Amino acid sequence: MKYGFIGCGNMGGAVARALSQSTKDIAVSDRSGKAAALATELGIQYWDNAAIAAGCEIVFLCVKPHMMKDMLQPLQSVLAQRKPILVTMAAGLTLGQIEKFAGARLPVIRMMPNTPTAIGKGVIQYCCNELVSQEALQAWLRDMQPCGLLDPLEERLIDAASALSGSGPAYMYVFLEALADGAVACGIPRAKAMEYAAMTMAGAAEMYLQTHTHPGALKDAVCSPGGSTIAGIRALEQHGFRAAAMDCVMATFERNRELGKQ
Ligand SMILES: NC(=O)c1ccc[n+]([C@@H]2O[C@H](COP(=O)([O-])OP(=O)(O)OC[C@H]3O[C@@H](n4cnc5c(N)ncnc54)[C@H](OP(=O)(O)O)[C@@H]3O)[C@@H](O)[C@H]2O)c1
């Protein structure tokens, strides 16, 4: 099975990196030539868009949503003739829109990854149209295992999931940096502050994943009555932290929906 990646930036590159652990039968393309270095590093090939459309069985579409239509237009005739499986990761674009831009009825998988996919810690939701056979889907899922969690989800919920896990690493990095800034303000050296903040986030998340204890109960176990942690929690609540986190996901969701209106 030959895989192709049209566009190989932050997200396409992350998926190609993980997939290359399953197979080296991968070709990537872009406009600037930057992906050639990644291809060399991963031991895969660097082709152009037309060669990928003509020579791959599974073609990942990894350009920005507003570029998808123009990128697919010159490939329409070869796609209509060969009918490879297209895999889109574009925020907001539906399976139907991808078929429309490709100019033919053909098998399409829609996936919503996040950047930790590059290190096998990704969260990926996926759905597909009825032209993707069960056999092909299972083979794709097997090869995608090094990416992390792959979870099937109805298409109508993909934009919402994308607002949480697709964009989520960015929210986490803002929180991580802000926590570290607070520790630096209290006198901890920057490098140590970053390490402590990151390990604390990872450890707390891992504890939830292993126990599935409600986060409120896990928080209560850290907050002694009249203690210092509950004073910190009060500061978070006074600054509207929970509402800010909810608004963050909902604003991203709204923007995903706007991106799909093209
Ligand atoms: N970043 C994320 O965390 C994330 C998460 C979930 C989903 N996504 C989705 O992933 C897709 C890619 O996002 P990204 O963050 O990876 O963007 P990016 O870093 O800007 O990468 C875009 C890639 O597309 C290439 N490209 C643009 N037009 C092209 C064309 N006509 N032919 C071939 N290659 C072309 C660019 O090549 P040049 O550099 O050579 O121009 C670049 O390699 C988007 O649809 C986005 O919605 C991203």
Which tags fit this structure?
about 260 residues; alpha/beta; 8-stranded mixed beta sheet; 13 helices; 8 strands; binds NADP nicotinamide-adenine-dinucleotide phosphate
What's a quick, concise take on this entry?
The protein has 262 residues and is α/β, with parallel strands linked by helices. Helix content is 54%, strand content 13%. Strands 3-2-1-4-5-6-7-8 form an 8-stranded mixed β-sheet, sandwiched between helices.
State the helical fraction.
Answer: 40-55%
The ligands found in this model are: NADP nicotinamide-adenine-dinucleotide phosphate
What is the molecular shape?
elongated
Average pLDDT reading: 97
Overall number of strands: 8
Head-to-tail CA distance between termini:
32 Å
Radius of gyration: 21 Å
Describe the structure.
This protein is α/β, with parallel strands linked by helices and 262 residues long. It has helices at 10-19, 35-42, 49-55, 68-72, 76-82, 95-102, 134-144, 158-166, 168-185, 190-211, 215-220, 228-238, 241-259, and strands at 3-6, 26-29, 45-46, 58-61, 85-88, 108-112, 122-128, 148-152. It has an eight-stranded mixed beta sheet, with helices on both faces. Helix 2 (35-42) links the parallel strand 2 (26-29) and strand 3 (45-46). The protein is elongated, with a radius of gyration of 21 Å. The mean pLDDT is 97. It binds NADP nicotinamide-adenine-dinucleotide phosphate. NADP nicotinamide-adenine-dinucleotide phosphate (NAP) binds next to helix 1.
Write the layout of secondary structure elements.
Blueprint: E1 3-6, H1 10-19, E2 26-29, H2 35-42, E3 45-46, H3 49-55, E4 58-61, H4 68-72, H5 76-82, E5 85-88, H6 95-102, E6 108-112, E7 122-128, H7 134-144, E8 148-152, H8 158-166, H9 168-185, H10 190-211, H11 215-220, H12 228-238, H13 241-259
Parallel strand pairs: 1-2, 1-4, 2-3, 4-5, 5-6, 7-8
Antiparallel strand pairs: 6-7
Helix pairs in contact: 8-13, 9-10
The structure holds NADP nicotinamide-adenine-dinucleotide phosphate.
Residues 6-12, 29-32, 34-35, 49, 62-65, 67, 71, 89-91, 112-115, 166 line the site of NADP nicotinamide-adenine-dinucleotide phosphate.
